[in-house]
Amino acid sequence: MLRVVVLVSGSGTLLQSLIDATQDPSYGVEIVAVGSDRRKAYGLVRAQEAGIETFALPYRKGEDRAAWDRELTARIAAHEPDVIVSAGFMKLVGEAFLDRFAGRMLNTHPALLPSFPGMYGVRDALAYGVKVSGASLFVVDAGVDSGRIIDQRTVRVHDDDTEETLHERIKVEEREMLVDHLRRRAAGEFVA
């Protein structure tokens, strides 16, 4: 069984796709904990309703960022995860975290990396005028959306797309890609 800790900051729709997938015993993935940097993140509610242990570790501007990173690392390490998934987690992790979990934290991004990294990937892709966009799954490193790409899914851009309509179609691919990757990893089909 692949042990996964999921980190969220918001509503947790990507988390919900993983929770739904774990309802099938043959999926081979167990979400052992869900953590957030926001106490009121709805993703925590989703996890609690599914019987998954949760924790919140807010970071406030001006606090010791390295101490926060060490505490986040310790809280996650206590669950002995094989993989950590950033599912809309809006904080960058630091040196202590990356040292402890090197190569084991995955993140998705709503653009075809290395193009359009950062918080506005969908908006930037539309502004550039691309005809194909999509979602990327990558290993988190010290940069912003700069880690090794594991998988990508494409999404056609329609002439009448808005940021919202395109992002909704990308989210569908993001969810399927992450669920599929973790299934393959649990089955031993993926070699890091």
Structure description:
This protein is 36% helix and 22% strand. The chain has helices at residues 13-22, 42-49, 65-77, 95-100, 121-128, 163-186; strands at 2-8, 29-36, 54-56, 83-86, 105-109, 132-139, 149-156. Strands 3-2-1-4-5-6-7 form a seven-stranded mixed sheet. β1, α1 and β2 (29-36) form a beta-alpha-beta unit. The longest helix is centred in the last third of the chain and has 24 residues, at 163-186. The relative contact order is 0.16. The model has no long low-confidence stretch (mean pLDDT 96).
Proportion of residues in β-strands: 15-25%
Helix-strand sequence? EHEHEHEHEHEEH
Shape: globular
**Helical percent range?**
25-40%
Walk across the major sheet and give the strand order: 3-2-1-4-5-6-7
- The Rg value, from CA coordinates, equals 16 Å
pLDDT averaged over residues: 96
Pfam families: Formyl_trans_N
Family: Belongs to the GART family.
Protein name: Phosphoribosylglycinamide formyltransferase
InterPro entries: Formyl_transf_N, Formyl_transf_N_sf, GART, GART_AS
